[in-house]
Amino acid sequence: MVGLEVDESGTGVAVLTIDRPHARNAISLDTMRELEEAIDAAAGARTLVITGAGDRAFVSGGDLKELSALRTEEDASAMAKRMRSVCDQLANFPAPVIAALNGHAFGGGAEVAVAADIRVAADDIKIAFNQVALEIMPAWGGAERLAALVGKGRALLLAGSGTALDAVEAERIGLVDRVLPRSSFDEGWRSIAKSLARYPATEIKRVISGVSPDEAIASFARLWVADAHWLAAEKVTNRTASPRPDGRGAT
Questions:
Q1: Which residues does 129 contact at the CB level (< 8 Å), separation at least 6?
Q2: DSSP 132
Q3: I want to staple 165 with a disulfide (CB 3.0 to 4.6 A). Which of 47, 169, 225, 229 is the partner?
Q4: What's the CATH code of the domain at 36?
Q5: pLDDT of residue 11
Q6: Same domain, residue pair 183 and 215
Protein backbone atom coordinates (compact mmCIF):
# COMPACT_ATOMS: atom_id res chain seq x y z
CA MET A 1 0.00 0.00 0.00
CA VAL A 2 0.96 3.64 -0.38
CA GLY A 3 0.27 5.95 2.53
CA LEU A 4 -0.06 9.72 2.35
CA GLU A 5 0.80 11.78 5.43
CA VAL A 6 0.10 15.50 5.40
CA ASP A 7 1.73 17.48 8.21
CA GLU A 8 -1.12 18.97 10.19
CA SER A 9 1.12 21.58 11.83
CA GLY A 10 0.98 23.72 8.72
CA THR A 11 4.50 23.13 7.41
CA GLY A 12 3.20 22.15 3.98
CA VAL A 13 5.11 18.84 3.93
CA ALA A 14 3.42 15.75 2.46
CA VAL A 15 4.97 12.28 2.76
CA LEU A 16 4.26 9.29 0.51
CA THR A 17 5.28 5.96 2.04
CA ILE A 18 5.46 2.73 0.07
CA ASP A 19 4.62 0.08 2.64
CA ARG A 20 4.90 -3.47 1.29
CA PRO A 21 7.13 -5.27 3.80
CA HIS A 22 6.43 -8.71 2.35
CA ALA A 23 7.92 -7.57 -0.98
CA ARG A 24 10.64 -5.22 0.29
CA ASN A 25 8.52 -2.31 -0.94
CA ALA A 26 8.60 -3.58 -4.53
CA ILE A 27 6.20 -1.94 -6.94
CA SER A 28 3.22 -3.86 -8.26
CA LEU A 29 0.54 -2.71 -10.68
CA ASP A 30 -1.68 -1.80 -7.72
CA THR A 31 1.21 0.20 -6.23
CA MET A 32 1.46 2.18 -9.46
CA ARG A 33 -2.21 3.07 -9.24
CA GLU A 34 -1.90 4.01 -5.57
CA LEU A 35 1.12 6.19 -6.31
CA GLU A 36 -0.77 8.00 -9.07
CA GLU A 37 -3.65 8.68 -6.69
CA ALA A 38 -1.42 9.70 -3.78
CA ILE A 39 0.63 12.15 -5.85
CA ASP A 40 -2.58 13.73 -7.12
CA ALA A 41 -3.90 13.92 -3.55
CA ALA A 42 -0.69 15.68 -2.43
CA ALA A 43 -1.41 18.63 -4.75
CA GLY A 44 -0.81 21.88 -2.91
CA ALA A 45 1.99 20.53 -0.70
CA ARG A 46 5.02 22.80 -0.55
CA THR A 47 7.37 19.82 -0.25
CA LEU A 48 6.65 16.23 -1.23
CA VAL A 49 8.68 13.36 0.23
CA ILE A 50 8.64 9.79 -1.05
CA THR A 51 10.09 7.05 1.14
CA GLY A 52 9.71 3.39 2.02
CA ALA A 53 8.50 1.75 5.20
CA GLY A 54 11.07 0.18 7.50
CA ASP A 55 14.83 0.44 7.22
CA ARG A 56 15.71 -2.34 4.77
CA ALA A 57 14.39 -1.11 1.43
CA PHE A 58 13.38 2.19 -0.10
CA VAL A 59 12.05 0.37 -3.15
CA SER A 60 13.56 -2.94 -4.23
CA GLY A 61 12.34 -2.55 -7.81
CA GLY A 62 9.35 -4.00 -9.58
CA ASP A 63 7.42 -6.84 -7.96
CA LEU A 64 8.81 -9.73 -9.99
CA LYS A 65 6.28 -12.24 -8.67
CA GLU A 66 3.49 -10.19 -10.20
CA LEU A 67 5.21 -8.63 -13.18
CA SER A 68 6.52 -12.00 -14.39
CA ALA A 69 2.99 -12.58 -15.71
CA LEU A 70 3.71 -9.99 -18.43
CA ARG A 71 4.92 -12.09 -21.34
CA THR A 72 4.27 -9.99 -24.45
CA GLU A 73 6.04 -6.88 -25.70
CA GLU A 74 2.71 -5.05 -25.60
CA ASP A 75 2.16 -5.88 -21.93
CA ALA A 76 5.74 -5.00 -21.02
CA SER A 77 5.45 -1.71 -22.88
CA ALA A 78 2.16 -0.81 -21.19
CA MET A 79 3.62 -1.49 -17.74
CA ALA A 80 6.74 0.55 -18.46
CA LYS A 81 4.71 3.46 -19.82
CA ARG A 82 2.48 3.49 -16.74
CA MET A 83 5.33 3.53 -14.22
CA ARG A 84 7.32 6.00 -16.28
CA SER A 85 4.25 8.23 -16.11
CA VAL A 86 4.29 7.91 -12.31
CA CYS A 87 7.95 8.91 -12.22
CA ASP A 88 7.13 11.83 -14.52
CA GLN A 89 4.42 12.85 -12.05
CA LEU A 90 7.06 13.01 -9.33
CA ALA A 91 9.54 14.88 -11.50
CA ASN A 92 6.91 17.39 -12.62
CA PHE A 93 5.37 17.99 -9.21
CA PRO A 94 5.39 21.78 -8.81
CA ALA A 95 7.04 21.83 -5.38
CA PRO A 96 10.37 20.26 -4.38
CA VAL A 97 10.34 16.46 -4.20
CA ILE A 98 12.67 14.56 -1.87
CA ALA A 99 13.42 10.85 -2.07
CA ALA A 100 14.24 9.81 1.50
CA LEU A 101 16.25 6.63 0.97
CA ASN A 102 15.49 4.78 4.19
CA GLY A 103 16.90 1.55 2.73
CA HIS A 104 18.39 0.08 -0.42
CA ALA A 105 17.19 1.42 -3.79
CA PHE A 106 17.68 -1.24 -6.43
CA GLY A 107 16.56 -1.39 -10.05
CA GLY A 108 13.23 0.37 -10.35
CA GLY A 109 13.76 1.77 -6.86
CA ALA A 110 16.78 3.69 -8.12
CA GLU A 111 14.61 4.97 -10.98
CA VAL A 112 12.03 6.26 -8.51
CA ALA A 113 14.81 7.90 -6.51
CA VAL A 114 16.20 9.86 -9.46
CA ALA A 115 12.72 11.09 -10.39
CA ALA A 116 12.88 13.22 -7.23
CA ASP A 117 14.63 16.58 -7.16
CA ILE A 118 16.73 15.69 -4.13
CA ARG A 119 17.94 12.39 -2.69
CA VAL A 120 18.66 12.10 1.03
CA ALA A 121 20.11 8.76 2.11
CA ALA A 122 20.77 6.93 5.35
CA ASP A 123 24.47 6.18 5.61
CA ASP A 124 24.08 2.39 5.43
CA ILE A 125 22.08 2.10 2.20
CA LYS A 126 23.12 1.08 -1.29
CA ILE A 127 21.76 2.19 -4.63
CA ALA A 128 22.06 0.32 -7.92
CA PHE A 129 20.62 0.41 -11.41
CA ASN A 130 21.02 -3.35 -11.53
CA GLN A 131 18.35 -4.29 -14.07
CA VAL A 132 21.09 -5.93 -16.16
CA ALA A 133 21.08 -8.79 -13.65
CA LEU A 134 17.71 -9.68 -15.20
CA GLU A 135 19.02 -9.03 -18.73
CA ILE A 136 16.83 -5.92 -19.06
CA MET A 137 17.37 -2.17 -18.81
CA PRO A 138 15.84 0.74 -16.87
CA ALA A 139 12.44 1.49 -18.41
CA TRP A 140 10.90 4.12 -16.14
CA GLY A 141 13.03 7.08 -17.28
CA GLY A 142 15.84 6.25 -14.88
CA ALA A 143 18.60 5.85 -17.45
CA GLU A 144 18.04 9.33 -18.85
CA ARG A 145 17.71 10.91 -15.41
CA LEU A 146 20.84 9.10 -14.20
CA ALA A 147 22.78 10.48 -17.18
CA ALA A 148 21.57 14.00 -16.38
CA LEU A 149 22.88 13.62 -12.83
CA VAL A 150 26.24 11.90 -13.31
CA GLY A 151 27.02 12.17 -17.04
CA LYS A 152 26.47 9.78 -19.93
CA GLY A 153 29.68 7.77 -19.50
CA ARG A 154 29.23 7.17 -15.80
CA ALA A 155 25.53 6.39 -16.28
CA LEU A 156 26.39 3.76 -18.89
CA LEU A 157 29.05 2.29 -16.61
CA LEU A 158 26.69 2.09 -13.63
CA ALA A 159 23.55 0.88 -15.40
CA GLY A 160 25.43 -1.27 -17.91
CA SER A 161 27.32 -3.15 -15.19
CA GLY A 162 24.70 -2.98 -12.45
CA THR A 163 27.29 -1.71 -9.96
CA ALA A 164 25.94 -1.03 -6.46
CA LEU A 165 27.18 2.13 -4.74
CA ASP A 166 27.18 2.83 -1.05
CA ALA A 167 25.73 6.11 0.16
CA VAL A 168 29.07 7.89 0.48
CA GLU A 169 30.19 7.01 -3.05
CA ALA A 170 26.75 7.89 -4.44
CA GLU A 171 27.06 11.30 -2.78
CA ARG A 172 30.57 11.78 -4.13
CA ILE A 173 29.44 11.40 -7.75
CA GLY A 174 26.27 13.48 -7.31
CA LEU A 175 23.73 10.65 -7.37
CA VAL A 176 22.80 11.35 -3.74
CA ASP A 177 22.64 14.89 -2.38
CA ARG A 178 22.87 14.34 1.37
CA VAL A 179 23.93 11.40 3.54
CA LEU A 180 22.65 11.28 7.11
CA PRO A 181 23.49 8.98 10.03
CA ARG A 182 20.99 6.17 10.43
CA SER A 183 20.39 7.24 14.04
CA SER A 184 19.08 10.65 13.00
CA PHE A 185 17.83 9.87 9.50
CA ASP A 186 14.09 10.47 10.02
CA GLU A 187 14.69 13.68 11.93
CA GLY A 188 17.17 14.82 9.30
CA TRP A 189 15.06 14.36 6.19
CA ARG A 190 12.04 15.89 7.88
CA SER A 191 14.13 18.93 8.79
CA ILE A 192 15.30 19.28 5.18
CA ALA A 193 11.73 18.90 3.92
CA LYS A 194 10.50 21.65 6.22
CA SER A 195 13.35 23.96 5.17
CA LEU A 196 12.23 23.62 1.53
CA ALA A 197 8.52 24.08 2.23
CA ARG A 198 8.56 27.73 1.26
CA TYR A 199 7.02 29.28 -1.82
CA PRO A 200 10.34 30.63 -3.14
CA ALA A 201 11.68 27.05 -3.32
CA THR A 202 8.85 26.15 -5.69
CA GLU A 203 9.71 29.12 -7.89
CA ILE A 204 13.40 28.21 -7.76
CA LYS A 205 12.52 24.66 -8.91
CA ARG A 206 10.55 26.09 -11.82
CA VAL A 207 13.43 28.31 -12.89
CA ILE A 208 15.99 25.51 -12.53
CA SER A 209 13.76 23.28 -14.66
CA GLY A 210 14.18 25.72 -17.52
CA VAL A 211 12.53 29.06 -18.21
CA SER A 212 13.62 32.12 -20.17
CA PRO A 213 15.62 34.87 -18.45
CA ASP A 214 12.56 37.12 -18.63
CA GLU A 215 10.43 34.50 -16.88
CA ALA A 216 13.07 34.04 -14.18
CA ILE A 217 13.15 37.79 -13.55
CA ALA A 218 9.35 37.88 -13.49
CA SER A 219 9.35 35.17 -10.81
CA PHE A 220 11.76 37.22 -8.73
CA ALA A 221 9.69 40.36 -9.18
CA ARG A 222 6.50 38.59 -8.01
CA LEU A 223 8.30 37.45 -4.88
CA TRP A 224 9.75 40.92 -4.32
CA VAL A 225 6.39 42.67 -4.19
CA ALA A 226 4.68 39.99 -2.09
CA ASP A 227 3.80 40.73 1.53
CA ALA A 228 5.88 37.77 2.69
CA HIS A 229 9.04 39.40 1.36
CA TRP A 230 8.42 42.71 3.11
CA LEU A 231 7.54 41.01 6.40
CA ALA A 232 10.75 38.98 6.21
CA ALA A 233 12.78 42.05 5.27
CA GLU A 234 11.33 43.95 8.22
CA LYS A 235 12.33 41.16 10.59
CA VAL A 236 15.87 41.11 9.22
CA THR A 237 16.14 44.91 9.44
CA ASN A 238 14.89 44.95 13.02
CA ARG A 239 17.25 42.16 14.00
CA THR A 240 20.34 43.80 12.50
CA ALA A 241 19.41 47.19 13.97
CA SER A 242 18.81 45.90 17.51
CA PRO A 243 21.26 47.05 20.21
CA ARG A 244 24.06 44.72 21.19
CA PRO A 245 23.93 43.27 24.69
CA ASP A 246 26.80 45.56 25.69
CA GLY A 247 24.86 48.62 24.53
CA ARG A 248 27.37 49.48 21.78
CA GLY A 249 24.99 49.72 18.84
CA ALA A 250 23.73 47.33 16.20
CA THR A 251 24.77 43.70 16.21
A1: 107, 110, 111, 138, 142, 143, 146, 158, 159, 162
A2: G
A3: 169
A4: 3.90.226.10
A5: 83
A6: no
Q: Which long-range contacts (CB under 8 A, 24 or more apart) does 189-192 make?
A: 189/49, 189/51, 189/98, 189/100, 189/120, 190/13, 190/49, 192/98, 192/118, 192/120
CA angle centred on 210, ends 204 and 211, rounded to 5°: 85
104-106 sheet: strands from edge to edge: 57-59, 104-106, 126-128, 164-166
Question: 92 and 167: one domain?
Answer: yes
In a domain, 248, yes or no: no
- Evaluate whether residue 171 is within a structural domain: yes
Q: Is residue 146 part of a domain?
A: yes
Over residues 224-247, mean pLDDT: 78
Domain range for 128 is 2-196
CA 177-140-61 angle, 5° bins:
75
Q: How far apart are CA 240 and CA 251, in angstroms?
A: 6
- 121 found inside a domain: yes
Residue 101, helix vs strand vs coil: strand
Count structural domains, the chain. Answer: 2
State residue 216's pLDDT score. Answer: 96
Q: For 128-184, what is each residue's pLDDT tens digit? A: 999 999 999 999 999 999 999 999 999 999 999 999 999 999 999 999 999 999 999
pTM of the model: 0.91
